[in-house]
């Protein structure tokens, strides 16, 4: 009997209180909600700050662009005023020396709508002529003629046909560049200028080289010419110490008249290198 009663005894029951667990779950969910909301607020603030920074950068860029446009417009207007003054100066020279209309037209082509400063010498001369008396002008011309008795003016000009033309007195030579690369073309131009110098008669005590290039000339021709001039002149000074060689770059100009008159008689340098110089003292020694 005892064993039977024991085997039918019911098991123990456990009771669980759900209210505290629900409270804990609500606390966790609320904490996560607050964290998500704080993160969203931070992201929103960062986005607003980025938008504000982009707007500031855009405003600054627009302001700089506006200032640049104003500066460009002011520079353009100043250049146009300078060009107008240059034309007036040329007109003064034309009236003073009674220059023909075609010559004055060519001078105006040197200036264009915006003067780049290449006609500063013309402007300065015109101001001197306008203020000088006829006697002073005559003295200047006589002095210039006397100077040419002891000095020479050579013209070196890069034309639109990729040639470099050299005029010295009644001699005219033409040169072409064949090499590639800026440094190689500069070295080639230096050699050709020196070779051209060796084909000319012995110069006077002073040689002034006026370098210019056509407005339609390519930079691959006139830039090596400009870069090679000081090196070529240094070789000339070493070869002929008794003569002083100087040069100046006039910039973009029409073909000089002295070269234009020699167009039909220009000798390519490759065909003239075997021609002996007039003065034997101008030959190099081994």
Per-chain topology:
Blueprint: H1 2-7, H2 19-97, H3 101-111, H4 120-131, H5 134-150, E1 151-158, E2 163-168, E3 171-176, H6 182-198, E4 206-213, H7 219-239, E5 244-252, H8 257-260, E6 267-268, H9 269-272
Parallel strand pairs: 1-4, 3-6, 4-5
Antiparallel strand pairs: 1-2, 2-3
Summarize the structure.
This protein is α/β, with parallel strands linked by helices.
Overall description:
Keywords: Coiled coil. Residues 37-78 form a coiled coil. This protein has a domain at 145-282: Nucleotidyltransferase, domain 5 (2-Layer Sandwich), CATH 3.30.420. Strands 5-4-1-2-3-6 form a 6-stranded mixed β-sheet. It has 286 residues and is of the alpha/beta class. The chain has helices spanning 2-7, 19-97, 101-111, 120-131, 134-150, 182-198, 219-239, 257-260, 269-272, and strands at 151-158, 163-168, 171-176, 206-213, 244-252, 267-268. Strand 4 (206-213), helix 7 (219-239) and strand 5 (244-252) form a beta-alpha-beta unit.
């Amino acid at each position: 009997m005892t064993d039977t009663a024991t085997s039918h005894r019911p098991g123990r029951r456990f009771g669980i209180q759900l209210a505290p667990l629900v409270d804990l779950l609500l606390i966790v969910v609320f904490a996560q909600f607050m964290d998500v909301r704080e993160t969203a607020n931070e992201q929103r603030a960062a986005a607003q700050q980025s938008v504000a920074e982009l707007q500031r950068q855009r405003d600054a860029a627009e302001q700089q662009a506006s200032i640049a446009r104003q500066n460009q417009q002011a520079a353009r207007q100043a250049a146009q005023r300078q060009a107008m003054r240059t034309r007036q100066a040329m007109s003064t020279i034309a009236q003073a020396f009674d220059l023909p209309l075609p010559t004055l037209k060519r001078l105006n082509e040197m200036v264009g709508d915006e003067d780049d400063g290449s006609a500063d010498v013309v402007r300065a001369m015109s101001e001197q002529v306008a203020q000088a008396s006829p006697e002073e002008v005559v003295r200047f011309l006589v002095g210039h003629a006397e100077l040419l008795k002891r000095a020479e003016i050579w013209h070196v000009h890069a034309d639109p046909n990729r040639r470099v033309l050299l005029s010295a007195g009644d001699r005219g030579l033409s040169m072409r560049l064949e090499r590639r690369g800026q440094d190689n073309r500069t070295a080639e131009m230096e050699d050709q200028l020196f070779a051209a110098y060796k084909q000319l008669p012995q110069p006077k005590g002073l040689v002034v080289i006026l370098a210019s290039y056509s407005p339609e000339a390519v930079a691959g021709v006139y830039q090596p010419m400009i870069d090679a001039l000081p090196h070529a002149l240094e070789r000339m000074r070493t070869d002929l110490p008794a003569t002083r060689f100087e040069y100046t770059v006039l910039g973009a100009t029409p073909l000089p008249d002295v070269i234009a008159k020699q167009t039909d008689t220009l000798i390519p340098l490759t065909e003239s290198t075997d021609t002996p110089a007039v003065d034997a003292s101008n030959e190099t020694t081994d």
